[in-house]
Design the sequence.
């Protein structure tokens, strides 16, 4: 399978079965990509190319940020990939680039993995029928009322982005959601992103930031101060009630909050029960150039890129029989 760029039907079925057995939010599968789309051998100095596919326990998905981060970490940490090399992942729809470099913002001085994803900005819902359907779903699933919603939009990866009032986000909790209502909503196809801006002292009159689950209550105050927004991601349509941390959702969140806050780099804190911080930099679109040395010169759809930076630690290794 190593010398092919596409998976066979039986291999795809094996990937789905394996992901179901692992029963994690997403499982990534990678194999070396030795030839380009024209069948020519890839020989680009300083780059290693891999195919990558993502599966939830129930379906294949086109993009997963943290599974890509973990895949890059394994290649850098355990297969001898030079730290100076760029790792280029070829997903079903997108090309993703991974590099090792220190963070300029959140994890200063540490060797982080930065992955360049296509930006997936959301477009505001314009149809009254769609808005009405989403508002009804929010009320039924989370008891969120219309006057608590600031903005609703849909991205081209099928994610619904909803910004709500900070105080309503604080009150969401972690139990009692009606996920069946999310399954019935036909406005989106993948997941629902609930988000809010981090409150300033003026916003909260000295109050606390959004309530965190017990595992996260010992986070340092300095970490909270760097955060620009909070989010949660719900995807029962993909077989995941709530995803712990969702890199691909930040391809939607980053352009929204960078525009809203007039910043190039924003820090997000996804506040699931496990939770995590995500550093995002929005890179404006570049004009395609046929003279580019990298095969990643393919166009980004006109929306630019989102560079997502994070840390990855290997906790388990083994071989499937």
Sequence:
């Amino acid at each position: 399978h190593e010398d092919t760029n596409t998976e066979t039907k039986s291999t795809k079925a094996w990937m789905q079965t394996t992901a179901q057995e692992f029963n994690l939010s997403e499982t990534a599968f990678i194999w070396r990509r030795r030839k380009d789309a024209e069948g020519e051998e890839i020989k680009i100095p300083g780059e290693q190319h891999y195919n990558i596919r993502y599966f939830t326990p129930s379906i294949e998905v086109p993009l997963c940020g943290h599974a890509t981060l973990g895949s890059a970490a394994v290649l850098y940490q355990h297969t001898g990939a030079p730290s100076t090399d760029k790792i280029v992942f070829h997903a079903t729809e997108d090309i993703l680039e991974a590099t090792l470099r220190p963070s300029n913002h959140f994890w200063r001085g540490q060797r982080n993995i930065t992955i360049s994803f296509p930006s997936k900005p959301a477009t505001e819902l314009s149809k009254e029928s769609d808005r009405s359907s989403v508002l009804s779903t929010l009320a039924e699933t989370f008891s969120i009322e219309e006057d608590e919603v600031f903005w609703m939009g849909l991205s081209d990866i099928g994610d619904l982005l909803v910004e709500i009032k900070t105080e309503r986000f604080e009150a969401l909790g972690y139990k009692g959601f009606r996920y069946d209502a999310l399954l019935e909503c036909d406005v989106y196809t993948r997941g629902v992103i609930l988000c809010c801006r981090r409150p300033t002292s003026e916003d909260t009159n000295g109050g606390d930031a959004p309530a965190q689950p017990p595992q996260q209550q010992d986070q340092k105050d300095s970490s909270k101060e760097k955060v620009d927004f909070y989010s949660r991601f719900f995807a029962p349509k993909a077989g995941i009630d709530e995803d712990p941390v969702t890199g691909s959702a930040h391809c939607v969140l980053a352009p929204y909050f960078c525009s809203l806050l007039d910043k190039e780099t924003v820090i997000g804190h996804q506040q699931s029960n496990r939770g995590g911080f995500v550093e995002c930099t929005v890179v404006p679109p570049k004009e395609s150039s046929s003279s580019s040395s990298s095969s990643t010169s393919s166009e980004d759809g006109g929306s630019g890129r989102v560079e997502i930076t994070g840390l990855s630690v290997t906790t388990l290794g083994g071989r499937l029989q």
Summary: Confidence is low (pLDDT under 50) at residues 204-209, 214-221, 290-299. The first helix runs from residue 9 to 22. The chain has eight helices and 15 strands. The longest strand covers residues 47-55.
